[in-house]
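User: Could you check the structure of this?
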Amino acid sequence: MPGVYISYPFCAQKCTYCNFASGVFQKEIATAYPEALRAELRATNWTWNPATVYWGGGTPSQLDPEILRSIHREIPGAPWREATLEAAPGGITKEKAEAWRRAGINRVSLGVQSFITKELARTGRKHTAQIVADEVTILRNAGLENFNIDLIAGLPGQTSRSWSESLDWIERINAPHVSVYMLEVDEDSRLGSEIIAFGKRYGAPEVPSEDQIAEFYEQAAERLAALGIERYEISNFARPGRESVHNLKYWRREPYLGFGSDAHSFDGQTRWQNIESPSDYVSRLTAHESPIVSQSAADNQSEPYFLGLRLTEGIPISEVPENVKHFLTEGLLEQFEGRLRLTPRGILLSNEIFAEFV
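Assistant: Sure, the predicted C-alpha coordinates are below.
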Protein backbone atom coordinates (compact mmCIF):
# COMPACT_ATOMS: atom_id res chain seq x y z
CA MET A 1 0.00 0.00 0.00
CA PRO A 2 2.23 2.89 -1.24
CA GLY A 3 2.10 6.40 0.19
CA VAL A 4 3.23 9.98 -0.34
CA TYR A 5 5.05 12.17 2.16
CA ILE A 6 5.19 15.94 1.60
CA SER A 7 7.67 18.05 3.54
CA TYR A 8 6.63 21.59 4.45
CA PRO A 9 9.53 22.89 6.61
CA PHE A 10 8.22 26.37 7.41
CA CYS A 11 7.29 27.41 10.97
CA ALA A 12 6.24 30.63 12.68
CA GLN A 13 9.01 30.00 15.22
CA LYS A 14 11.59 27.30 15.95
CA CYS A 15 10.75 25.30 19.09
CA THR A 16 13.63 24.74 21.51
CA TYR A 17 13.36 20.93 21.42
CA CYS A 18 13.06 20.61 17.63
CA ASN A 19 15.84 18.80 15.76
CA PHE A 20 14.13 18.65 12.36
CA ALA A 21 15.26 20.48 9.22
CA SER A 22 12.56 23.08 9.72
CA GLY A 23 12.22 26.62 11.02
CA VAL A 24 11.73 30.23 10.00
CA PHE A 25 12.90 30.99 6.44
CA GLN A 26 12.73 33.97 4.10
CA LYS A 27 9.23 34.83 2.93
CA GLU A 28 10.34 34.62 -0.72
CA ILE A 29 11.32 30.96 -0.24
CA ALA A 30 8.00 30.11 1.42
CA THR A 31 6.13 31.81 -1.43
CA ALA A 32 8.02 29.92 -4.13
CA TYR A 33 7.98 26.56 -2.33
CA PRO A 34 4.47 25.37 -3.35
CA GLU A 35 5.25 25.74 -7.07
CA ALA A 36 8.47 23.79 -6.54
CA LEU A 37 6.41 21.03 -4.92
CA ARG A 38 3.98 21.02 -7.85
CA ALA A 39 6.90 20.82 -10.28
CA GLU A 40 8.42 17.83 -8.47
CA LEU A 41 5.04 16.08 -8.35
CA ARG A 42 4.37 16.74 -12.05
CA ALA A 43 7.77 15.28 -12.98
CA THR A 44 7.01 12.01 -11.18
CA ASN A 45 6.41 8.85 -13.17
CA TRP A 46 3.55 7.37 -11.17
CA THR A 47 3.56 3.56 -11.50
CA TRP A 48 0.99 3.21 -8.70
CA ASN A 49 -1.69 5.25 -6.98
CA PRO A 50 -0.88 6.19 -3.38
CA ALA A 51 -3.28 5.11 -0.66
CA THR A 52 -2.04 7.68 1.85
CA VAL A 53 -0.72 11.25 1.89
CA TYR A 54 1.10 12.77 4.85
CA TRP A 55 1.99 16.46 5.24
CA GLY A 56 4.86 16.83 7.72
CA GLY A 57 6.89 19.77 8.86
CA GLY A 58 7.45 22.31 9.92
CA THR A 59 3.90 23.52 10.19
CA PRO A 60 2.00 22.64 7.01
CA SER A 61 -1.24 23.84 8.62
CA GLN A 62 -0.07 27.42 8.00
CA LEU A 63 -0.21 26.81 4.25
CA ASP A 64 -3.19 28.42 2.50
CA PRO A 65 -5.83 25.65 2.14
CA GLU A 66 -6.43 26.52 -1.52
CA ILE A 67 -2.71 26.13 -2.28
CA LEU A 68 -2.76 22.79 -0.44
CA ARG A 69 -5.73 21.76 -2.58
CA SER A 70 -3.91 22.74 -5.78
CA ILE A 71 -0.92 20.60 -4.76
CA HIS A 72 -3.24 17.67 -4.07
CA ARG A 73 -4.44 17.84 -7.68
CA GLU A 74 -0.97 16.70 -8.76
CA ILE A 75 -1.24 13.48 -6.70
CA PRO A 76 -3.18 10.56 -8.18
CA GLY A 77 -5.47 8.24 -6.27
CA ALA A 78 -7.79 10.71 -4.52
CA PRO A 79 -9.76 10.27 -2.37
CA TRP A 80 -7.00 8.60 -0.39
CA ARG A 81 -7.62 6.13 2.40
CA GLU A 82 -5.77 8.49 4.77
CA ALA A 83 -4.51 12.06 4.26
CA THR A 84 -2.84 13.58 7.31
CA LEU A 85 -1.93 17.20 7.97
CA GLU A 86 0.37 18.17 10.84
CA ALA A 87 -0.99 21.25 12.61
CA ALA A 88 0.11 23.63 15.36
CA PRO A 89 -2.58 24.43 17.93
CA GLY A 90 -3.58 28.05 18.14
CA GLY A 91 -4.56 28.78 14.56
CA ILE A 92 -7.29 26.29 13.70
CA THR A 93 -10.58 27.89 12.68
CA LYS A 94 -13.89 26.49 11.46
CA GLU A 95 -13.12 27.87 7.99
CA LYS A 96 -9.67 26.27 7.87
CA ALA A 97 -10.84 22.89 9.10
CA GLU A 98 -13.67 22.77 6.56
CA ALA A 99 -11.25 23.83 3.78
CA TRP A 100 -8.82 21.06 4.77
CA ARG A 101 -11.63 18.54 4.53
CA ARG A 102 -12.60 19.82 1.07
CA ALA A 103 -8.95 19.54 0.01
CA GLY A 104 -8.95 15.83 0.89
CA ILE A 105 -7.51 15.88 4.41
CA ASN A 106 -9.21 13.35 6.70
CA ARG A 107 -6.73 13.19 9.60
CA VAL A 108 -4.94 15.92 11.60
CA SER A 109 -1.88 15.50 13.83
CA LEU A 110 -1.74 18.19 16.53
CA GLY A 111 1.69 19.15 17.87
CA VAL A 112 0.48 19.75 21.41
CA GLN A 113 3.61 18.44 23.28
CA SER A 114 2.16 19.42 26.68
CA PHE A 115 -1.06 20.75 28.20
CA ILE A 116 0.85 22.67 30.89
CA THR A 117 1.26 26.40 30.18
CA LYS A 118 4.60 26.74 31.98
CA GLU A 119 6.12 23.80 30.10
CA LEU A 120 4.85 25.12 26.79
CA ALA A 121 6.22 28.62 27.38
CA ARG A 122 9.76 27.27 27.76
CA THR A 123 9.56 25.52 24.41
CA GLY A 124 8.33 28.59 22.55
CA ARG A 125 4.79 27.29 22.07
CA LYS A 126 1.93 29.72 22.72
CA HIS A 127 -1.20 27.61 22.92
CA THR A 128 -3.03 26.52 26.07
CA ALA A 129 -4.86 23.37 27.06
CA GLN A 130 -8.22 25.07 26.51
CA ILE A 131 -7.20 26.20 23.03
CA VAL A 132 -6.40 22.58 22.15
CA ALA A 133 -9.74 21.40 23.53
CA ASP A 134 -11.64 24.09 21.61
CA GLU A 135 -9.82 23.28 18.36
CA VAL A 136 -10.46 19.56 18.77
CA THR A 137 -14.16 20.46 18.87
CA ILE A 138 -13.71 22.50 15.68
CA LEU A 139 -12.04 19.53 13.96
CA ARG A 140 -14.79 17.15 15.02
CA ASN A 141 -17.51 19.54 13.86
CA ALA A 142 -15.78 19.75 10.47
CA GLY A 143 -15.83 15.95 10.16
CA LEU A 144 -12.17 15.52 11.09
CA GLU A 145 -12.74 13.09 13.93
CA ASN A 146 -9.54 11.16 13.25
CA PHE A 147 -6.78 13.17 14.93
CA ASN A 148 -3.55 12.63 16.84
CA ILE A 149 -2.11 14.39 19.89
CA ASP A 150 1.70 14.65 20.17
CA LEU A 151 3.18 14.67 23.68
CA ILE A 152 6.82 14.94 24.78
CA ALA A 153 8.02 13.23 27.95
CA GLY A 154 10.98 15.08 29.45
CA LEU A 155 10.29 18.77 28.87
CA PRO A 156 12.04 21.22 31.24
CA GLY A 157 10.24 21.46 34.57
CA GLN A 158 8.02 18.46 33.85
CA THR A 159 7.01 16.45 36.91
CA SER A 160 5.01 13.30 37.48
CA ARG A 161 2.11 15.50 38.58
CA SER A 162 2.21 17.80 35.54
CA TRP A 163 2.63 14.83 33.20
CA SER A 164 -0.42 13.23 34.80
CA GLU A 165 -2.34 16.46 34.18
CA SER A 166 -1.45 16.32 30.46
CA LEU A 167 -2.72 12.74 30.38
CA ASP A 168 -5.93 13.93 32.09
CA TRP A 169 -6.53 16.18 29.09
CA ILE A 170 -6.10 13.21 26.72
CA GLU A 171 -8.97 11.53 28.55
CA ARG A 172 -11.00 14.75 28.63
CA ILE A 173 -10.88 15.31 24.88
CA ASN A 174 -11.24 11.58 24.14
CA ALA A 175 -8.31 11.45 21.71
CA PRO A 176 -8.34 8.53 19.25
CA HIS A 177 -4.55 8.53 18.76
CA VAL A 178 -1.61 9.73 20.88
CA SER A 179 2.10 9.89 20.10
CA VAL A 180 4.45 9.95 23.11
CA TYR A 181 8.04 10.92 22.36
CA MET A 182 10.81 10.80 24.93
CA LEU A 183 12.89 13.99 24.73
CA GLU A 184 15.89 13.57 22.44
CA VAL A 185 19.10 15.26 23.58
CA ASP A 186 21.32 16.10 20.63
CA GLU A 187 23.15 19.07 19.19
CA ASP A 188 20.56 19.57 16.43
CA SER A 189 18.15 21.32 18.79
CA ARG A 190 18.74 24.43 20.88
CA LEU A 191 17.63 22.68 24.06
CA GLY A 192 19.69 19.60 23.29
CA SER A 193 22.88 21.55 22.60
CA GLU A 194 22.32 23.56 25.79
CA ILE A 195 21.99 20.36 27.84
CA ILE A 196 25.16 18.92 26.28
CA ALA A 197 27.03 22.14 27.11
CA PHE A 198 25.66 22.14 30.70
CA GLY A 199 24.09 25.51 29.97
CA LYS A 200 21.15 27.19 31.65
CA ARG A 201 19.06 28.53 28.75
CA TYR A 202 15.67 27.10 27.73
CA GLY A 203 15.26 25.49 31.18
CA ALA A 204 18.03 22.97 30.44
CA PRO A 205 18.94 22.40 34.13
CA GLU A 206 15.33 21.38 34.82
CA VAL A 207 15.11 18.62 32.23
CA PRO A 208 14.08 15.41 34.03
CA SER A 209 16.61 12.59 34.32
CA GLU A 210 16.58 9.66 31.89
CA ASP A 211 15.03 7.48 34.61
CA GLN A 212 12.28 10.04 35.20
CA ILE A 213 11.57 10.30 31.48
CA ALA A 214 11.30 6.51 31.28
CA GLU A 215 8.87 6.59 34.21
CA PHE A 216 6.76 9.23 32.43
CA TYR A 217 6.67 7.04 29.33
CA GLU A 218 5.58 3.98 31.30
CA GLN A 219 3.01 6.09 33.15
CA ALA A 220 1.57 7.19 29.79
CA ALA A 221 1.51 3.65 28.40
CA GLU A 222 -0.39 2.38 31.44
CA ARG A 223 -2.81 5.30 31.53
CA LEU A 224 -3.54 5.21 27.81
CA ALA A 225 -4.11 1.45 27.87
CA ALA A 226 -6.68 1.97 30.63
CA LEU A 227 -8.45 4.38 28.26
CA GLY A 228 -8.47 1.81 25.44
CA ILE A 229 -5.63 3.58 23.62
CA GLU A 230 -3.20 0.71 23.04
CA ARG A 231 0.45 0.91 22.05
CA TYR A 232 1.03 -0.40 18.52
CA GLU A 233 4.48 1.14 18.01
CA ILE A 234 7.07 2.36 20.51
CA SER A 235 5.90 5.98 20.35
CA ASN A 236 2.35 5.53 19.06
CA PHE A 237 -0.89 4.57 20.78
CA ALA A 238 -4.35 4.29 19.23
CA ARG A 239 -7.88 3.13 19.72
CA PRO A 240 -8.71 0.08 17.55
CA GLY A 241 -8.83 1.09 13.89
CA ARG A 242 -7.24 4.52 14.48
CA GLU A 243 -3.62 3.54 13.89
CA SER A 244 -1.74 5.77 11.44
CA VAL A 245 -2.02 3.89 8.16
CA HIS A 246 0.70 6.03 6.58
CA ASN A 247 3.27 5.75 9.35
CA LEU A 248 2.86 1.99 9.51
CA LYS A 249 4.47 1.93 6.04
CA TYR A 250 7.79 3.04 7.47
CA TRP A 251 7.98 0.23 10.02
CA ARG A 252 6.60 -2.41 7.64
CA ARG A 253 8.96 -1.22 4.86
CA GLU A 254 6.20 -0.48 2.36
CA PRO A 255 7.02 1.93 -0.51
CA TYR A 256 6.52 5.68 -0.28
CA LEU A 257 7.63 8.73 -2.22
CA GLY A 258 8.80 11.88 -0.46
CA PHE A 259 8.45 15.38 -1.93
CA GLY A 260 9.94 18.65 -0.74
CA SER A 261 13.15 19.60 1.02
CA ASP A 262 14.82 16.84 3.05
CA ALA A 263 12.11 14.35 2.05
CA HIS A 264 13.04 10.66 1.93
CA SER A 265 11.73 7.95 -0.39
CA PHE A 266 11.77 4.14 -0.50
CA ASP A 267 10.63 1.88 -3.33
CA GLY A 268 11.23 -1.45 -1.61
CA GLN A 269 14.84 -1.79 -2.70
CA THR A 270 16.37 1.70 -2.86
CA ARG A 271 16.29 4.70 -0.52
CA TRP A 272 16.92 8.28 -1.62
CA GLN A 273 16.82 11.77 -0.11
CA ASN A 274 16.10 15.29 -1.36
CA ILE A 275 18.35 18.23 -0.64
CA GLU A 276 17.85 19.55 2.90
CA SER A 277 17.78 23.33 2.38
CA PRO A 278 14.38 24.73 1.29
CA SER A 279 16.10 27.50 -0.70
CA ASP A 280 18.33 24.99 -2.52
CA TYR A 281 15.28 22.80 -3.15
CA VAL A 282 13.40 25.71 -4.73
CA SER A 283 16.46 26.66 -6.80
CA ARG A 284 16.86 23.15 -8.17
CA LEU A 285 13.21 22.74 -9.13
CA THR A 286 13.12 26.24 -10.67
CA ALA A 287 16.11 25.24 -12.81
CA HIS A 288 14.38 21.93 -13.75
CA GLU A 289 17.02 19.96 -11.83
CA SER A 290 16.50 16.91 -9.63
CA PRO A 291 16.32 17.63 -5.89
CA ILE A 292 17.80 14.20 -5.06
CA VAL A 293 21.20 14.37 -3.37
CA SER A 294 21.78 10.81 -2.13
CA GLN A 295 20.71 7.31 -3.06
CA SER A 296 21.59 3.90 -1.66
CA ALA A 297 20.43 0.31 -1.62
CA ALA A 298 18.18 -0.60 1.29
CA ASP A 299 19.71 -2.84 3.94
CA ASN A 300 17.42 -5.83 3.62
CA GLN A 301 19.33 -7.71 6.33
CA SER A 302 19.06 -5.31 9.25
CA GLU A 303 16.15 -2.98 8.39
CA PRO A 304 13.42 -5.57 9.03
CA TYR A 305 14.73 -5.86 12.58
CA PHE A 306 15.33 -2.28 13.71
CA LEU A 307 12.21 -1.02 11.93
CA GLY A 308 9.84 -3.95 12.43
CA LEU A 309 10.71 -4.46 16.08
CA ARG A 310 9.36 -0.98 16.81
CA LEU A 311 5.91 -2.46 16.31
CA THR A 312 4.08 -4.16 19.17
CA GLU A 313 3.26 -6.99 16.75
CA GLY A 314 6.99 -7.56 16.21
CA ILE A 315 8.29 -9.42 13.17
CA PRO A 316 7.80 -12.94 11.81
CA ILE A 317 10.94 -14.98 12.31
CA SER A 318 12.03 -18.61 11.96
CA GLU A 319 15.42 -18.27 13.62
CA VAL A 320 16.79 -15.62 15.99
CA PRO A 321 20.20 -14.23 14.90
CA GLU A 322 23.02 -15.45 17.10
CA ASN A 323 24.20 -11.95 18.02
CA VAL A 324 20.88 -11.02 19.67
CA LYS A 325 19.99 -14.26 21.44
CA HIS A 326 21.35 -12.83 24.68
CA PHE A 327 18.50 -10.29 24.61
CA LEU A 328 16.09 -13.21 24.98
CA THR A 329 17.78 -14.48 28.13
CA GLU A 330 18.02 -10.92 29.46
CA GLY A 331 14.27 -10.45 29.04
CA LEU A 332 14.49 -7.67 26.44
CA LEU A 333 13.17 -9.72 23.50
CA GLU A 334 10.62 -12.53 23.44
CA GLN A 335 9.31 -15.05 20.93
CA PHE A 336 5.56 -15.40 20.60
CA GLU A 337 3.59 -17.41 18.03
CA GLY A 338 6.40 -17.40 15.47
CA ARG A 339 7.22 -13.73 15.95
CA LEU A 340 9.98 -11.80 17.68
CA ARG A 341 9.07 -8.70 19.68
CA LEU A 342 10.33 -6.35 22.35
CA THR A 343 9.28 -6.89 25.95
CA PRO A 344 8.04 -3.88 27.96
CA ARG A 345 11.53 -3.55 29.43
CA GLY A 346 13.05 -3.98 25.99
CA ILE A 347 11.05 -1.01 24.71
CA LEU A 348 12.87 1.27 27.16
CA LEU A 349 16.22 -0.08 25.95
CA SER A 350 15.26 -0.35 22.30
CA ASN A 351 18.09 1.85 20.98
CA GLU A 352 20.68 -0.48 22.49
CA ILE A 353 18.90 -3.48 20.97
CA PHE A 354 18.56 -1.91 17.52
CA ALA A 355 22.27 -1.05 17.52
CA GLU A 356 23.00 -4.80 17.33
CA PHE A 357 21.26 -4.95 13.96
CA VAL A 358 22.93 -1.93 12.35
